[in-house]
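ingest -> fold -> write
write: protein_1
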Amino acid sequence: MSHWSLYTWTRDGRSLRRALPTLTVLAALLTASAGVAAGAAGAVERDVLGSGGLTQIELSSFEGDESVRPLTTSALGKAGAVPGVRRVVADYSSALYAEEDGTYDLAARTLTPADDLPVTKGRLPPGAAELGKDEVVLPATAQGTDFASYVGRSIAFGYTKATGAESGATSVVVLRVVALYDPSWQADGPGVAYLSEETAASLAAARAGLSPNDFRDRKGAQSAVVVVGHQRQVAAVTEALQAQGFSASPVSDRVRNLPGLFGVADLAMRAGVLALAVGAVVLGAVRASDSTRARLGQFAVLRILGCGRPELRRILLGEALLSGGVAAVAGVASGTVLSVALAGPLSDVLGLPITVTDALPAPIWAAAALLTPAAGLAVGALLGSRDVLRRDPYLTARAHG
């Protein structure tokens, strides 16, 4: 880089230094987005894999999709018979609401091996043991009700029992509250009560107006978690389940591939790099064209004094690299600070702890944010200055004399 580049970049307000603010903002947005996505992804992966996700496979049922095998009793029995499978836990959804004190209305689901609840009071069954059929785990607070005094007590809950095609009545079930969990943990949504598989199936069957056995045989579960003996067996078991018609996917793959929101975030990162590159090239072309036109007389004198077009291009290229480099460093620094500052609010939204190191952008995205502005601006500068520098220097000097 010519020393003239540094001189003109620092002293001349018409240099490519004018591209700094826009490029800095673009680099900062890309870095902050990468940090936020990395923080969310790291928190979800740590939470799911920390609960034994490396040895778990998720089965899903899609209502109305005949190509996917329903998770009925017989189907789950076939899944449990696959070599390598240690346990299959079906997830049934229903609802529990206040029968005595309070005004809460809680969704109810099966407590599966994939649920790593952050317990704040009480205790979950040790190891891989299931909840008892008369036990329930509640959020510490929900809908204005504090459940702290419920721990260890047997409480009457209301649930709906269908009495006709479009009618139902309230029935009562007595459950002992064995533990409370942090309500900010919302992997299955806010305010969820966790039950044993048997109890969850019974409540879901009552709402459908069926006996538990008929419900399990005819309707089936909405999802299930398959636990295998060792991580190395996951791929083979998943393949065997898929061959039997199940919608099966390893929990570890699902988390690491980050579908849904985080998959969109990954695509947004790629789109951000592309936008930054295109923006830098376009901005470089426009700014270089404007800059060379504004300094046409100055460049004409330099050419008359023996400075060729390649030397002038090197000056502009040096200005572009300086502008892009400074913008990249400033943008990455400010974007990283912003992503770290957003770690707390994002942690509250997800209900999962996000550390400062989680919120740091991945090296590949940080490198992209550092290199793209300078490279794009340099290409744009070369393209934008091409026509202007071809003008006759003597005629130009006379016109600006």
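write: protein_2
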Amino acid sequence: MAAGRNVMRAVKVFEFGGPEVLKLQADIPLPVPGENQVLIKVHACGINPVETYIRSGTYAKKPALPHTPGSDVAGVVEGVGEHVTTFKKGDRVFTLGTISGGYAEYTISSADTVFSLSDKLDFKQGAAIGIPYFTAYHALFQKGSAKAAETVLVHGASGGVGIAACQIARAYGLKVFGTAGTEEGIKLVLQNGAHEAFNHKKKDYLTQIKEAAGVHGIDVVIEMLANVNLAHDLQLLSSGGRVMIVGSRGPIEINPRDTMWKESSIRGISLFSASKVKKTIIMQYMYIIHLEETVCLFCNTAWIRCLASTHGKFWKAPLISSYTFLRPCRHTHSFNHFTVWGTLHKLSGVSCYLLRSFGLASETIFCNSINLSGAGLASLGFICPAAFSLHAFREKQCS
């Protein structure tokens, strides 16, 4: 608990409406964490479109009033509940699910939605991770089933989720197209992983996308404005293509027959509806930190960097080479061979499990545990269809 304080400043919404309903209050009781909760001193708070929908009363699920907005915050742990063992006072953290609201000096979050923040990221960047990056990953892989070498179109790619989707998709080995509405936006999209970017305000931009995609078409569309683009998206899809609806601001009329001959699908995305297990997998996949040893899965992380903006400026930082990212080997046409160094390490084991669960380790995973016993190798059988010590592998290669 904050020493000597029992009140804080926080923004409250007493009625739904425009920005004018946001009221700064100076006498809000300091929240007290429950047994499985974490009290965070807020250093930065991310602002996402969903917060504006909630504030205006147009979101499907309305909070009880008065309400403090804000889901994504980064800060320092001020206190923890009696059952919380993963965090302690003074830890740098970020969360994507505040309980008491992020537009405040202090907030509480469930411990399972709080994650350690690397010292190499500042608080502004930490506050920009939650909803944008988790949503992008959820849309691309958990719902969109995107695979390396497929083509993804990110509509609204210059926004928070759009930038994250471009970065992650590029790092994963997809061909990335993005759209934006300004030349500045186009440059930003290209700087953050897109192979090609298109101005959606130009009349012929859909023709340009079709030409760039070729006969095959677009495998996955990450759609931020479905009420405008969905009908066109269906025309761009490949056979078996998928549209992931991340955002929509109203109704649209489509022809269902456009989904039939290509056997394409339309899927709605809501990070709030994702299970705790899926969110944990996203975290383990994207952002494993404080490693005791380097886990390497072809970890060229050049395209993964968190952007936070304030007053028109951008802060960029790589999410560190020691984080785990799955990406295909650039030097082979096969996308199911990965190398995991130090496989018996607990975090490397997570990496193996994720590879296996994504169907990406269908043949072999190698580990560098030279003194690995036969029993140790056998224990990897549930995650590795074939496991070898690096020493044994070298002998095999030389024989």
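write: annotation protein_2
The longest helix spans residues 130-143.
The first strand starts at residue 7 and ends at 13.
pipeline exit 0
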